[in-house]
Amino acid sequence: MKKFYSGFVSLTGRPNVGKSTLMNGLIGEKIAITSHKPQTTRNKITSILTEDDFQCVFLDTPGIHKPRHKLGEYMVRAAENTFNEVDLVLFLIEPTEQPHPLDLYVIERLKNVKTPVILVINKIDTIEREKLLAVIDTYSRLYDFAEVLPISAIKSTNLDELINVIRKYLPEGPQYFPGDMVTDQPERQIAAEIIREKALYLLQDEIPHGIAVEITGMKKRADKNMVDVDATIYCERDSHKGIIIGKQGAMLKRIGATARHDMERLLGSQIYLQLWVKVKKDWRDSDFLLKNFGYDKRNV
């Protein structure tokens, strides 16, 4: 009987180094939201890559940073708790000649880890070869990485090679998920994340990161291939509410229209999306609201 290999791989690193872009590229589907803003990923997101003889379950963890509120503490704990629970850790960095302070912070955390760690240098399309070699040398002196692999997630450079490297570290084991399954996230959670991504993208730097999205209703119509989705965008200040809604509701309509397109791809049906905006002051420091928005510290 042909041997089958399976295991769990954590993607870690400081915020905004391209972890979600990499995971989406490896899977070939949009599972995790991406944004130029740091701390876009707030939960451990599981995606699944299945080939003929192996299955790799990726955990895209929130970017490790020094937390300033309870949401930040939740995010860092979610990331760090995966290190010893997986078969392999992918540590993503950008190819800067001097290590970022948060990269050094992550390396200190990794020194307590027994799991093999592969250094993945992302965004190599932004650096010359000579400088890349210097980056490899610098980081190799800081930690005993199992392997070092330069890639470009956004240009899909060396992603096939990365899959081959990952495959070497997977133990013999069962197929945990069906072969056509690419994520274990509930549809509601993915829909909420899509709306949040579009809001972050369209609002750019007009509001800080303090928004959350809750799907308050999702129901398929009995008479046609359409799903009614009701969602609420929460922000922390009254002034932010006005910005999210926009003049005569124009911004909220743009957020809804762009989110609906991705959601229709996800659910394979037409979407009738209704959005509301509410103010919840200091929700990122409220245990009750964090749990309500899906960031339950008992799950990390």
Describe this entry's structure for a reader.
The chain is an alpha/beta fold and 300 residues long. The chain has two domains: 5-168, Rossmann fold; 187-299, GMP Synthetase, Chain A, domain 3. The protein has nine helices and nine strands. It has helices at residues 19-27, 70-80, 101-110, 129-142, 159-168, 187-203, 238-245, 250-267, 287-292; strands spanning 5-12, 45-50, 54-60, 88-93, 117-121, 147-150, 212-220, 226-235, 270-279. The strands form two sheets. It has a six-stranded mixed β-sheet with strand order 2-3-1-4-5-6, with helices on both faces. It has a three-stranded mixed β-sheet with strand order 7-8-9. Strand 5, helix 4 and strand 6 (147-150) form a beta-alpha-beta unit. Helix 6 runs antiparallel to helix 8 (250-267). The longest helix is centred in the C-terminal third of the chain and has 18 residues, at 250-267. The protein starts with a strand and ends in an 8-residue tail after the last helix.
Q: What are the SSEs and their pairings?
A:
Elements: E1 5-12, H1 19-27, E2 45-50, E3 54-60, H2 70-80, E4 88-93, H3 101-110, E5 117-121, H4 129-142, E6 147-150, H5 159-168, H6 187-203, E7 212-220, E8 226-235, H7 238-245, H8 250-267, E9 270-279, H9 287-292
Parallel strand pairs: 1-3, 1-4, 4-5, 5-6, 8-9
Antiparallel strand pairs: 2-3, 7-8
Summarize the structure.
The chain is of the alpha/beta class and 300 residues long.
